[in-house]
Amino acid sequence: MSAAPDSQVLPYPPLNLLESASLFLDFDGTLVDIADRPDAVVVDQALNSLLADLARRHDNCIALISGRSIAQLDALIGPIARNIALSGSHGSEYRWNGTLAHPVRPASLEQVERVMRDAATGHPGSLVETKSFGVALHYRLAPEFESEARALAARLAGQFDLALQEGKMMVELRVPGSDKGVAVTTMMRRREMAGTRPVFIGDDVTDEEGFEAARTFGGTGILVGPPRETAASYRLPDPAAVRHWLAGESQ
Ligand SMILES: [Mg+2]
């Protein structure tokens, strides 16, 4: 990971960054606050309106780039999800103008899920999440499980040749060969994105590849949350500030 030289004091992003930009937006922790359970996230009407407005202002050059599956994003966001480009499952699947592209789900994920569920039984509050192209083990409500959960995931990744993805209080095994940088690169090669400058906004370590890919295409990254080593060039403190900035309102 390459760090911006002044990663500890990243500035508030200037509003003119939005001009001629294509927007690549993470979802959890970026547009909505992270909930204790992934299914407890709430999408309000204001977010729906903001996404519709952004799609119009940016000539549909807007994409959600999430670790969630496209099916989960559809369920959470509702009809507006049909109007924006989506990349789900950490760059494994895509939907653009109604056309869905996705890999085959490896059968090994079912074995992995059984092992994770067995391990989670001894840790009340932990949660195994079946995803379209992965399995996630959440320990936000069972923090004592963290080191065991991460070691288990690392072992299973090696055993079944799956990609290991660590996130905020969770670890996930998924189809290898993709990440959020791959998602940005894939989408930036679309004709519709030609001439745009990608701005990637995200909060998690999984968003770093997205920041780096945005830079490769002459764009930039905006980190959401507390300062840390990052490839982003700007920072916003929380999802409320992201929405405020995206709405074109100054600091
Ligand atoms: Mg996030």
Q: What does this protein look like?
A:
This protein is α/β, with parallel strands linked by helices and 251 residues long. The protein has 2 domains: 18-101 and 178-246, Rossmann fold (3-Layer(aba) Sandwich); 108-174, Trehalose-6-phosphate phosphatase related protein, domain 2 (Alpha-Beta Plaits, 2-Layer Sandwich). Helix content is 30%, strand content 22%. The chain is built from 7 helices and 12 strands. The chain has helices spanning 45-57, 70-77, 108-121, 146-160, 180-188, 208-216, 239-246, and strands at residues 21-25, 62-65, 85-88, 93-96, 99-101, 127-131, 134-138, 163-167, 170-174, 197-202, 220-224, 234-236. The strands form 2 sheets. The protein has an 8-stranded mixed β-sheet, with helices on both faces. Strands 6-7-9-8 form a 4-stranded antiparallel β-sheet, covered by helices on one side. Helix 1 links the parallel strand 1 (21-25) and strand 2. It is globular and about 50 Å long. It starts with 20 loop residues before the first strand and ends in a 5-residue tail after the last helix. It binds magnesium ion. Magnesium ion binds at residues 26, 28-30, 202-204. Magnesium ion binds next to loops.
